[in-house]
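PROTEIN–LIGAND DATA SHEET

This sheet pairs a single protein chain with one bound small molecule, pyridoxal-5'-phosphate, given as SMILES. Inputs appear in the order they were entered. The predicted three-dimensional arrangement of chain and ligand is reported afterwards as a token string under its own label.
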Amino acid sequence: MNFIPYGKQSISDDDINIVIETLKSDFLTTGLKVNEFEQKIYEKTNAKYCVSVSNGTAALHLSAIALLEKNDKVLTTPNSFLATSNAILYAGAKPVFIDICSDGSIDLNICEEHLKKDSSIKAIFAVSFSGKILNQEKLKYLKNKYNIKILEDNAHTMGVKLTHSDISIFSFHPVKHITTAEGGAIVTNDKKLYEKIKSLRNHGQDDKHNMTMLGFNYRLSDINCALGISQMSKLEKFIIRRQEIAQKYNDTFDNHKVIKPLYPYTPNSYYHLFVVLIDFNKLTFSKEELINKLRIKNIGVQVHYKPINKQKYYNSIGYGNEYTPNMDNYINRCISLPIYPLLTNNEQDYVIKTLLELLND
Ligand SMILES: Cc1ncc(COP(=O)(O)O)c(C=O)c1O
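PREDICTION REPORTED AS:
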């Protein structure tokens, strides 16, 4: 069996052809492909506006600058890629790490306990972890009741509708639902936020090239956007295939005594990741040893995520001792299994068989 990674892109000839066409065209950047890609994203997400940017981290950076003031406190999750909370720091604001709930995403009830006690909290940066859509009703309630900003980091949930939140961001890194190689996007219904973010993307200039704020070059090229346009036409298909794979893993591990899915199968998840929890107390080997055993069998699994607040840099600025019992328990048990549209049934069967053999040993 060839090596099976936990995630990878799905590129076909139509993707390659549109990129070649764009390379032969007059505009490699700031051309029509950018607008076309952005239109596809705001239509898909039911949002009024979209700004494409050079990666998901840039999307978070610009959003944080547009939403936050210096020293604002922002509730966020330890269970994400570093960029979610780094963006809060880029804006001079202060992440406050909140424990996770049983589906791996930020516990919005604990968020409310903090909001009740502390009026200096100005925002929540929440992540639809693994692709499971965040509780929109609860986010709307918190936004209105406590007058805070909500950013949804939907890097794992490409195409999810924007409902009540101020901003939703996406990433088009190759392991995500669609790819532009590197790329990201911000969607919003707020015209002022849109205009500010659009200007920040282009050095802080307005349409007449007057610089009114300190911005960046976070533009996404026409070459990347052309690939994105082609990939967008397959997004539904990609999500359905991921859900099929998830359902099969789910049905296999549902009643097992050592391994279980992070949450029962739900069509409310776009399954960027399929996370399982393994009870290592019942096994004679550790998580690291299991990861190595799988690697020897040509299966790549991953851990999502080492808690951000426990990273060395975060320790150096005073984080790491937050009370997060669910996250502590989760990180001892979680593993992300291979899931991507091009994973074949044979490959998935091989992953399942190998894993069960190792666990039943
Ligand atoms: C939850 C989350 N947020 C943000 C990012 C950053 O996206 P990018 O890698 O495109 O900068 C990622 C990607 O790894 C992610 O998984």
